[in-house]
Write a structure and sequence with these properties.
By secondary structure, the protein is of the alpha+beta class. The chain has 3 helices and 3 strands, in the order ααββαβ. The protein has a domain of 90 residues.
Length: 135
């Protein structure tokens, strides 16, 4: 007579009270954490890009406003105000210097969601323009 060994039951992934009891669902938590980190990084990159674009808009608006204020005849800050507003900026400073040069400062608004993160600060652009001396 041959002796039969009892067959071992194969583990089919059920919780049998072994040392795996606390590991079930750990992969889901890990994937959710990685997704949250990726989302946060994406939002940070987007916010940084929007801030850089706003800063470039401020610089361009300041350059154009300074050139408009320096004008062909007489320096005029009213023209700088019009050009800045046309570029979506607000003229915050316009100084006519005795040598005929004009220094302007403008601020542009940030997108709504980014303005809340910036705490009310706005990107500022500064520029100076004037006529070349004769000769």
């Amino acid at each position: 007579m041959t002796s039969r060994r009892p067959r071992r039951r194969q583990d089919r992934g059920g919780d049998r009270g072994g040392d795996r009891g606390g590991d079930r669902g750990g992969g889901v938590v890990l994937v959710l954490c990685l997704a949250a980190v990726a989302l946060g990084a994406g939002l940070a990159v987007t916010a940084g890009g929007a801030a850089v674009v706003a800063r470039h808009r401020a610089d361009a608006a300041a350059d154009l406003a300074a050139l408009a204020a320096a004008g062909p005849v007489v320096p005029d800050c009213a023209r700088a105000q019009e050009v800045a507003a046309g570029n979506g900026a607000r003229l915050t400073s316009c100084v006519l210097l005795p040598d005929g040069t004009v220094t302007v400062e403008v601020a542009v608004p940030l997108p709504g969601w980014l303005a809340g993160l910036a705490g009310g600060r706005r990107p500022v652009g500064r520029a100076r323009a004037g006529h070349l001396p004769p000769g």
